Amino acid sequence: MPLQEGQQVLIKNPRALVGTVVKARPGDKGLPEEQTHYLVRISDELFYLSTDLEAVENPNMELERYSPEWLAEFNRWLELGRWWLANQGDTAALAQFSESGRKLGFIVPMK
Fold it and tell me: What does the CA dihedral 81, 68, 7, 52 come to, rounded to 10 degrees?
């Protein structure tokens, strides 16, 4: 079945991607450069062969994208991400961050 416009796909063969550095991870301050993580925004649109793509099931989202509830959850997700970055040993924070990301459709469980 052909892929549809707007459908989420897993890129199995990413080739070369170009991104823009947004910022260094706050928790990495003071680490050597080779151990520093960066948030990178990937904004390119590229053509891929269909064999390099795999359809991703739409997550069962309870929230309509960009609705007031979705935006509130998005803000919660950002705060949870900040909290988890500051307390990376906190598995409860990671679980809440992941669950919030799943509700938003950002985090897709692997099969």
Answer: -10
CB count within 10 Å of CB 38 equals: 11
Q: 40-84 pLDDT, tens per residue? A: 777 677 787 888 777 766 555 567 888 888 899 999 999 999 998
Q: What angle do CA 1, 101, 59 make, to 5 degrees?
A: 25
Residue 49 makes CB contacts below 8 A (sequence gap 6+) with 13
Are 37 and 51 in contact, with CB atoms under 8 Å apart? no
If DSSP codes are grouped into helix, strand and coil, which group holds residue 63? coil
SS3 (DSSP) at 80: helix
92, 68 Cβ separation under 8 angstroms: no
Share of the chain above pLDDT 70, in %: 78
